[in-house]
Design goal:
Elements lengths: L1 H13 L4 H27 L1 H8 L5 H23 L17 H12 L7 H18 L1 H31 L1 H19 L6 H14 L5 H20 L20 H4 L2 H16 L1 H9 L1
């Protein structure tokens, strides 16, 4: 069924009346993203030299371990601003006899196809294979790869969960953004905490204890499961309304009012058909 969803997405794109415009926009965006990715790849290959010049008095591994958490905090803030929610594409299937788990699994899978999930790979992996593999060995290298992928997945689903909650209550987004800003100010302006030291506290120990890489993986799986449960419970539009807002049907057909918003849509279609002259004239012929 997942492959069917993908096929329908492609057909919907190519059959859209704005296909040419959308295709041109996507080509331009793809070129810009590819250009940015190439720049990040270059930064990744020379990250050891950049860190050496930026932090000349610190060991190279300490500098690298210290910037990882800073990067992911900035990435989470960017995700809250720019990452799209894959929610509207499955609406035509809500009235069909398709299992909720299948649709929610499709939404969760398409959420991983985000350019944000590529940035840490092209930025950190060259340094990992260039420095950590040579200095700390294969197990430490595997630990860093798994932990960075785990944190990226955690950020992915955490941002989506916050944005979905923010659709019902805008204060959720403001609080999440304010927390990230306050953490940044507490380090770079007020010097109350040190994000670099906190980051090194985990990733520094990861060099000698690669099993710690399971921690971000478990957190990412937990956040995925939280998104899965939330989407499954709120998949239908009627269930996304707040508890305070009681549904009031505007249809004049009592039987259709039991179907909520769907009944309203059907009733409106019936009204339009009855008010249109062509269906009336066709009916009179028979």
């Amino acid at each position: 069924m997942i492959s069917t969803f993908f096929k329908h997405e492609l057909k919907a794109f190519w059959r859209s009346k704005n296909t040419g415009k959308n295709l041109a926009v996507r080509i331009i965006m793809a070129i810009l993203i590819l250009y940015m990715l190439l720049n990040v790849v270059v930064v990744g290959f020379f990250l050891d030299k950049i860190l050496g010049k930026t932090f000349p008095h610190d060991p190279i591994l300490f500098s690298f371990c210290g910037i990882i958490l800073i990067y992911f905090m900035g990435e989470l803030f960017a995700r809250l601003q720019l990452q799209e929610l894959p929610t509207l594409r499955v609406q035509p299937y809500l009235q069909l006899p398709i299992k909720r788990n299948t649709m929610v699994g499709y939404l969760a899978l398409t959420a991983l196809f985000s350019v944000f999930n590529l940035w840490p790979i092209v930025l950190f992996f060259p340094f990992i294979f260039k420095i950590i593999l040579h200095d700390a060995g294969g197990f430490a290298t595997l630990g860093f790869i798994v932990s960075i992928l785990g944190i990226s997945i955690l950020n992915n689903y955490l941002a989506l969960y916050i944005k979905r909650k923010a659709n019902l209550n805008g204060w959720v987004f403001l609080i999440a953004a304010a927390v990230l800003v306050l953490i940044g100010l507490s380090d770079f302006m007020w010097h109350i905490i040190s994000i670099r030291n906190i980051s090194y506290l985990f990733f520094g120990h990861l060099i000698n204890h690669p099993v710690l890489a399971l921690v971000p993986v478990l957190l990412g799986v937990a956040m995925y499961y939280l998104n899965f449960i939330y989407l499954k419970q709120n998949l239908y539009l009627e269930e996304l309304s707040t508890k305070k807002d009681k549904y009031k049907s505007s249809t004049e057909y009592p039987m259709l009012s039991y179907f909520g918003a769907t009944g309203d849509l059907v009733a409106n279609e019936v009204k339009l058909i009855l008010r249109n002259k062509r269906p009336k004239s066709q009916g009179n012929r028979f």
